[in-house]
Amino acid sequence: MLRGYNIRDVSRIHREYGEIVRIGPNELSFAKTEAWNDVFSHRPGHQEFYRNPIWWSRPPGQPSSFITANPEDHARMRRVLGDAFSEKALKEQEPIFQRYVQLMIQRLREKAQIRDEGVIVNIVDWYRYCTFDIIGDLNFDESFDCLSNGRYHWWIEGIFNVFKISAFLACIRFFPWLEAIFLRCIPKKMQDLQQHYQAVVDKTQRRMNKGLGRPDIMSYIMRNNGEKGMTAPEIQSSMNVLSVGGSHNTSSTMSGITNYLVKNPACLQRLAMEVRSAYQSSHDITLASLLKLLYLNGVIEEGLRIAPPFPAGPPRCVPPGGDTVCGEWLPGGTEVQVNSWSLQRSPAAFVLPEEFHPERWLLHTDPSSIFINDDKNASQQFSVGPRRCLAQSLTYAELRLMLASMVYSFDIRPVDNPAGKLVWSDQKTYIVVDERPFEVCLVSVVN
Ligand code: HEM
Fold first, then answer.
1. What is the CATH number of the domain that holds 72?
2. Is-above-0.90 flag for pTM?
3. Which terminus of the chain has a smaller tally of CB atoms within 10 A, N or C?
C-alpha cells in the first residue's frame, strides 16, 4: 500500500484466485457486479454497511463531515447538501462552469498561437487549474486563480500531500497504538495540515458573510440549513471535503480520458468530428446541447471505466451481527471493498477490457456491436445507494463541457518524450491516482 501499487497487487490476486479474495487479516475484495448492490444499496431488512473507519476517520483536529458522519448525522447532512446538486441548481450554475472552461481555452490558445506547430503542455496541470478554479467559485465565490496565474495556488499544492498522508495514516490504523506515536513524530506536517484546513474555515466564513446572493453550493446549504441543519464546524469540514473531492476526481478523469484519446487517434478523430460538426461557434456549446452528443458521452463513460480516478472503490465494513455479500455469509466487522479497478477491467464483465472502446456505450445505435453483452453495471465510479455521489450530474456536465471545448478548439497530438508516452494505468495510487505529468501538443483549430 505504501509503495502505491496496492490496486495493481489486488487486481493480480483477483486474476489469479477469482472474484472474491482475502487481501488482509480481516478484509475481502470483491470483483463482482452483484457486490455493488449487496454492500452499498439499501436492502430491506438489512442494516447499512458502515464506512470503514480505517479509511474514513476524521483527520486529526478536524470536526466530522458528511464523509465521516454516523448514519443519522449523515442523513441530516445529505438533506442539507442535496439541493445544491439538483438539476435546477446546475442550470443556475452553468455560467460559472462556462467562465472557467472558456478561460482555460483562452489561456491555452494564447500559448498555442505563438507557434504554428502548436505548444507542448502538461495537460494534467491545466485540467486541475480549471476544476479547482470552478470548485473555489462554486464553494466560496473565490476562485483559486490558477488559470489566470498559470500556476497552482498554495492550498492546492498541499492537497497532493494530504492524499499521501491519508494513505499512510490508513496503513498505520491497522496497528491502532502506532497512530498516536506517528502523529507526534510529524509535528510540522500536522501544522501544515491544520493551516490547510484553517484556510477553508476562513473561506467558508467569508462566503457565509456574503449571504444568499448567488446560486452557488453555499447558498443552497444556507437556505436548507434550518433547525435540523448542519453546525458551523460540520459545514466547514464538509466544504473541505467538497473542495478536494469536487475537483481532483474530475481533473483526473479528464487527464485519463485525454491520455487514452491521444493513444487511440481514431477515437479522438471521431470525437472531434462529432463536436465540430455540432457547433458553429464555441459560444453555442451549452450543457443542455452536450447531452445529445452520443460519442462524447460514450468517451466519458469509457474513460471512467478504464481510467477511474478513485480506483479502489469506497471501503466498507459488514454491520454488527453479520450479513451476506454475493451469497457468502460474513461476520460483523469484516472489511469489504468492491475493487472497481479489477471489476471494470474484468473479462467477465467487458469484452476487450484493457482496450479503450467508447462504442461499447453506444449499443442503442449499433445492436450488432461485439460489446452487446458487456455488463455496464459493473462500472460504478460514483458508487450506488444512500451514500452515492451527490454530484454525478454536475460532474458529467463539467466533463462534457471541458472535453467538448478542448476538442472543438484544439487538435490534440501525441508528444514523443517520456511525459508524452505516460501509460495511464502504470501510475501509483494513494487513495486517488498519483498523477504524473502528461504532455500533449495543442494546435489551435480555426473554427
Ligand atoms: C469523476 C468525479 C467524481 C467521482 C468519481 C466521485 C466519486 C464519488 C464516490 C465514489 C462517492 C461515494 C463515497 C462512498 O460511498 O463512500 C462520492 C460521494 C460524494 N461526492 Fe463525488 N465524485 C466525483 C465528483 C464529485 C464532485 C465534482 C462533487 C462536488 C462538487 C462531489 C461530491 C460528492 C458528495 C457531496 C458525495 C456524497 C457522499 C455522501 O452522501 O456521503 N463528487 N463521490
1. 1.10.630.10
2. yes
3. C
Nearest to 444 by CA among 401, 400, 405: 405
Dihedral sign of CA atoms 148, 154, 155, 156 in order:
positive
366 part of a folded domain: yes
Identify the domain containing residue 64 by its residue range.
Answer: 6-444
Spatial distance between the Cα atoms of 48 and 60, rounded to a whole number of angstroms: 26
Does residue 118 belong to any structural domain of this protein?
yes
**Which ipTM did the prediction report?**
0.98
Cα separation, 447 vs 272, in Å, equals 12
Q: How many CB atoms lie within 10 A of CB 323?
A: 20
Q: Which residues line ligand 1 (CB under 6 A)?
A: 51, 66-67, 74, 78, 81, 242, 245-246, 249-250, 253, 309-310, 314, 381-383, 387-391, 394-395
Q: Confirm whether 78 is domain-assigned.
A: yes
1 part of a folded domain: no
207-264 pLDDT, tens digit each = 999 988 899 999 999 998 888 889 999 999 999 999 999 999 999 999 999 999 999 9
Give whole-number Cα distances, 315 to 84, 197, 205, 279, in Å. 26, 24, 32, 42
267 is an annotated ligand-binding site residue: no
Which residues lie closer than 8 Å to 307 by C-beta, 6 or more apart?
252, 253, 255, 256, 257, 259, 260, 424, 425, 433
Q: Count the domains in the chain.
A: 1
d(C-alpha 164, C-alpha 428), whole Å: 11
- Dihedral, CA atoms, 263, 265, 267, 271, nearest 10 degrees? 120
Atom of ligand 1 nearest to the CA of 380: 10
CA-nearest residue, atom 6 of ligand 1? 382
